[in-house]
Amino acid sequence: MSTCQSDLAGQAQQPQSAEQADSRSNITQVQSAAAQIRSERLALEVRRALRCQNQKPVRPDAAELKQPDSSVKRNTALVKKLRLITEDARAALLEDIYRVNQSKYVSEAVVAVAEGSLKIKDVPAALEVCSALHQRYAEFGSGLAAELARTLCAAIKDDEPSSLLKRRGSLKLLAELLLCGVHDDTAALLTVVRAMATVDFRRDPERVPACLGLLASLAKGAGEELLGFPAKLPALPFEAEAEADGEANAALRQARAELAAEQAAYQAEAAHRFRLTPEQLQPFLRAMTRAFEQGCTALEAEHGELLASERRAAHTLNNRGEVPEGMAATYERQRALFEGLQRSLAQLGASLERSLPDLPESRVSRITSDEGGIMVLTGRDLSETAMGPFEDEETRAFYKSLPDLQVLVPGELLDDAAADTVSASAIESSTAASAATDGEAAGTAVAAAGGAAGGEGGGREARREADTLLARLPTCLSREACDQLAQELCLQATKGFRKRLVKTLCSVPWGQLQMLPYYARIAASLNQVFPDIGFALVKAQEEEFEFLQNKKDPTQRSLETRLGNIRYLAELAKFRLVPFGTLFTALKMLLDDFSAHNVDIAAALVETAGRFLYCSPETHTRMANMVEVMMKLKNARNIDARQSMLVDSAYFQCKPTARRALQRKQRPPVHEYIRHLVYDCMDEEDLKKVMRKLRRLPWAAYEAYLVHCLLGAVKGRVSHVPLVASLAAGLSRYHPSLGIAFVDALLEEVRVGLEAAEAGEYQRRVSHMRLLGEMYNYRLVDSKVVFDTLHLLLSFGHDTPEEAEMVDPAGNFFRVRLVCALLETCGQYFGKGSAARRLDRFLLYFQRYVLAKPMLPLDVEFDVQDLLEHLRPALQRFETFAEAVDAVAALEAEDAAVEAQGGWQGEDADSDSDVSSAGDGQRRRISEAEVEMEVEPAWGEEAEQAVRMLGPAKEVEVDDDFEREFSQLMLEHQGRPANAFQGLTQGEASPSGPPSAGAPPQESGGSMTFKVLTRRSGGGGGREERARAVQVPASSAIVQGMQSEAAAEAAERAEIKRLVLEADKREQLAAGLPQVLPLATFQRQVDQDVLAGGARGRPSGSRKQRQGSGIDAGLTGLTSRPPGSEARRSASKRRGHL
């Protein structure tokens, strides 16, 4: 009885004790909230008291500062203590501050406090110490704020992100110093906040979470003062807020009363707290908001990359069975960064009253072997799998287009058969029992099941019909026959018949492997309405494979059985009856023991289902890896040739070549020969041989193709560009049309390059510019073409701002490179005359174009500097775009004035001179192709004149006997009468002198008269000379040679006369001087001087040496005249150049 009473008493006390525990818990929560509010109120009181003291400090004067100790030792000790401020050392530090005079060491104290390692819990002590120093030394507060800001900004840029976390206390101290009135510089704190808010996550992903964490702590500690957010008091539980009734809750009511009092005191104290003005709040709030938004953007991007890494890792795990260590480490690092960024953003968002963005969930949350991982088809083009896993449309229809038996077969029959469907467990037990007997595996098991069910079919007639249908299986060799038989089998689909059908499908006739695809199609068609058939068939084949694999029978009969089994599994996989994992498992087992029959079985599997698995998106990567492993094993193992051929055939059947073999473009033999000469044989040593061989081509048929090849040769090495120009210059002497076509093609390419400025063609465009310069050097083009091209580079596409932005953007400096390439090649020849003036004019436009661009990159700027230093060392570059524009405007105004007065006549004359120089085959430097060569017969020509070498002539041998006799003759006849050589002065030639010195010899009909001087010894030792006329036929070699020499000298005199006149005229126009002589008078003087020089300037010597001596003497006479001396000196230089 007492026991029962005690149990009842205990049961009554249990509710009371539970209520008391809840009451105590509520009281504790209320008291904790009151204590937290009290601590915050006390902190506000301390802050307000310190601010009052710091706003109106009472600093000691000079006399009072003399009393404390100002020794170096005490100051050094105090500075060391300031580097490590703690709550325990606060009292000692304050005492030392008042005992030591630090007026001379304030900067050291500032640096010590700013660089010290301060913890969050020690910030109140540091704040009190800094207030004491500020109240004694006026410069301490502002100096400490600036030094703290500098230290924090340096920590943000530090290489170690962990160093920034150590500055959390310094950031809080900087904010508290502002709130307590130690300094009033909000710019220092704002600089630090902005520096933390602008850190880029992409550039420095490890530093952003640390910066966001510091900003979150700052916003949480001073959100009301710096950002304007209201203070958040601690929340109470619902039970604590409810009304307390009864004596048991008296303590709770008392705790709530204390909490209410603390709240009222806190509100009263918070009303006096210091806050920034709205104008001062906005920059802090904008910086914090910007940091949060950028962090959210980075969080979403990092989340996307994390999901991609998870998918890749899951995909790799699915294919390879493990994740590489490098991939796992990369994933863990990405996940750590993501989680750190998410935590920091959550803290900052809570302080700013902002929420984080919604992130999509991932199907793979961690690196696992989850089958939900996404398979990705990588490394293949969509065009490769246009037909999918099948080779052609007929094959695709065979495996994909199955008959819809649910439509073709009456529904009542299907419903009855479905009610009688055998369970999967029954088939598993029957097949498992049969697998233990012999190597025939599942076939015997299904036969036993079929025998047991034979009597269940009812009636002999039904059994006879079933036997007839099953006997038709080996005869189904077409898709239509398979579909028809599947439709008829559905009519007999009883439980026993389906067992017999599975047994028959497993028993493929021996040696008839071609029946396997048709058996598999029948099974796949029936599997739509009778899933147990497909399940039983696949299960039987899998168990047969495992049995034969473990048996390791080396006989040929076992090999044939295994080949039929693996091909059957592969065909069933094409109809998606066998899971893909089953085939990969079987292939891995075969590759693990890649020897003997396993090689044949693996090759058969890959050959049958390899292409299907390789071209299917979900199995592509894994199959590609498996076949590569198989090929590596084949190369590493010592297998026989037959098996090696089987593996190769299976590999290429599974993974055909991605594209056809590159086919060489078929060209005519002559085209191939031209390309060989231009691209392969052209170098400095063999250039003349190349030119000789090219000249033998049928020029009318292959000139256009040769131009094409020459233009394409510049795509090779840079050293080929001068050779191409040299070859073109040499060929143009014999075929002028080549030079014209080549120049036209090059200028067309230049313009096309400006119209479609593609980055991939930049190197080709530079080569074109170098080729154009080399063509000027070899006199294929004149200076006008070069300068027109230069101006085209600067002005093309600038008709409208929209077109200029498309063709020549402001940030594209490639045209500057083209100008530099062209002028570096041929600019050294623009040093005098009109070409120099044109270059000076172009450089003005070029500087304006360069200054219109943004600041040039260093490499382009160096190219421009080198170019100007090379061409015009004394040129003063413009500093601003306005200066260049003014210079160009002044030049254009001057041109307009000159053009109004009659234009620049000298420019055209110089241009014509260039053209004529190019036309006669001469070049500014000797062409490698223009060397003296042997005379070779060309196609259709019997002989060809030898090419004369341009340059210094070889020393001509002098006939000493002839010179000696001629000198003796002249000495003997110095005293003869003036008419002794009348025939010579009248233009009649003698054997000892060329007729080119005077008028041509006399002609009479078909002959020419020569006077021959003879000498005869007379009596008494004297000599008798006599001149006798001789008629020489006009067809003789001597007459024709003299006529050609006379014509050549006449042409030379005319050319020199023209050059002298033009040079004099240009110099006078350039100097702004009037013409010294009229043109007709000057021409007559030139003729007289040339003829007079021929009469008086004939030197002694051989015949070849005396040629042209009269012209030299005539030029000497011209240069002695004072008027226009500068022009004639220029003409003399040109004569020497020619």
UniProtKB/TrEMBL annotation:
Location of the region described as Disordered in the Swiss-Prot/TrEMBL record: 1-30, 899-936, 982-1032, 1090-1138
Membrane spanning residue stretches: none
Record's keyword terms, sorted: Cytoplasm
SMART domains associated with the record: MIF4G
Main location: cytoplasm
Subcellular location(s) per record: Cytoplasm
Domain MIF4G: 72-303, 467-657, 672-874
GO terms for biological process, alphabetical: nuclear-transcribed mRNA catabolic process, nonsense-mediated decay
Domain of life per record: Eukaryota
GO cellular component entries: cytoplasm; exon-exon junction complex
UniProt cross-references to InterPro entries, sorted A to Z: ARM-type_fold (IPR016024), MIF4G-like_typ-3 (IPR003890), Nmd2/UPF2 (IPR039762), Upf2/Nmd2_C (IPR007193)
Gene Ontology molecular functions: RNA binding
PANTHER family: NONSENSE-MEDIATED MRNA DECAY PROTEIN 2 UP-FRAMESHIFT SUPPRESSOR 2, REGULATOR OF NONSENSE TRANSCRIPTS 2
Protein's recorded name: MIF4G domain-containing protein
